[in-house]
Amino acid sequence: MSEAYHKVTALGLKSFKSSTVITLTNFRKMLSNRLYVGFISFPTFGIENQPADFQPIISSDLFDKVQYFLEHGHRSRANSKSDPATFPLRAFVRCCRCGVPITGSSSKGRQKYYAYYHCRNRACRSITVPVDKLHEQFHRLLAVQSKSAHDFTRLKSVLFQLAEQRSSHTAARLQQLSDTLSALEEKKRILVDARFVEKALDQETFSEQVRHVDGEIKKIRANIEKVGTEPAVFDEALLEFAEEVYKTPTIFWGRSSINHKRAIQHHFFPEGIVADGEKVGTSSSPTPDFITSILSACEEGGGSPSDDLWNRFESWILSLRLLKKCLDTPEDEIAKWRYRKP
Ligand SMILES: [Zn+2]
How far apart are CA 37 and CA 56, in angstroms? Predict the structure, then answer.
């Protein structure tokens, strides 16, 4: 690191505040500042690693390599087969010929290493693509997923209406269940009267009837619990997060660390993608994305979405929650965990 330090100070890197040559300590701090990869932290305001609104000037891959160097005092085997940060799409993309997930390798040229992805199936080996080329193809596929602020305004309004419909539906369902429960409890009371007050029932019939009624009561109570704990449809914080991710998914992906990249890939393409060397795509027939479908179903139809669409909505929300949870895990924690087991 001191070599790099002497190089940049010789080139004239100065401290911003004092206009004197930057100290080694501050140079080290600068190298681990996530601001340059597009993340802001203001601990006094409780802001930690929030995605910034500007284009990062350093790629997260380079940043990760530098962090490894700072921690270990030597280069990571960044260009070797085992460095995951070089190959975020490894195992996620499948070969279009044989369907086997692709892997990544590097080979040493005269000056530097060349990293590429290739089919790992020895019998096939149809695909060999330079890392940058496949990433560019992936960027194009990901860019199509982007949604405007206007789309999100429409989505919020549609989901807000759906949430209201859903909550009145839930209220009606709870009322119905609670009426059934009262009726069953009344029935049980009548049975007790019939057995012990009017003595019109023998013990055997009484026990059998009570067992039956108790079974029904148990079922209804379980249903009430289930309906009452359904997750909220409209979650403003989650939608804001979604807007951030969908605004420019390519930038979001590009500046994320390897583990976050993988989570983002999985969210957008849960079934993975296939590559033929020239382009990448999804293996299933192209279907309009969830947001477009729900907007057209609710705005044009003016009604509620179909069950199928509703199920897709629920899995979308679930997938978003998981993504948010993963991205909320501090970068450093994930990085340490990764570097301990290279
Ligand atoms: Zn193959």
Answer: 5
Q: What is the Å distance from ligand 1's center to 118 Cα?
A: 8
In a domain, 13, yes or no: yes
Question: Residue 184 C-alpha to ligand 1 middle, in angstroms?
Answer: 63
The CA 90 to ligand 1 mean position distance, Å, reads 13
In a domain, 69, yes or no: no
Residue 175 covered by a domain: yes
Taking the centre of ligand 1 as the mean of its atom positions, its distance from the CA of residue 102, in whole angstroms, is: 8
Structural domain boundaries, residue 185:
156-228
pTM for the structure as a whole: 0.62
Separation CA 20–CA 287 (nearest Å): 59
| Total domain count, the chain | 2
Gap from CA of 137 to ligand 1 centroid (Å): 18
Domain C-terminal end among 208, 228, 248? 228
Q: How far is the CA of 98 from the centre of ligand 1 (A)?
A: 4
Per-residue pLDDT of the chain (342 residues; tens, 9 = 90+): 788 888 888 888 888 777 788 888 888 888 888 788 777 777 777 676 666 777 778 776 677 778 777 776 766 554 445 577 889 999 899 999 999 999 998 887 777 778 899 998 889 888 999 999 999 999 999 998 899 999 999 888 888 887 777 778 888 889 999 999 999 999 999 999 999 888 888 999 999 999 999 999 999 999 998 887 766 666 888 999 999 999 999 988 988 888 889 889 999 998 889 999 888 888 665 556 778 888 888 777 666 677 777 778 888 888 898 899 888 887 666 655 544 443
Tell me whether residue 47 is in a domain: no
Give the span between the Cα atoms of 172 and 159, in whole angstroms. 20
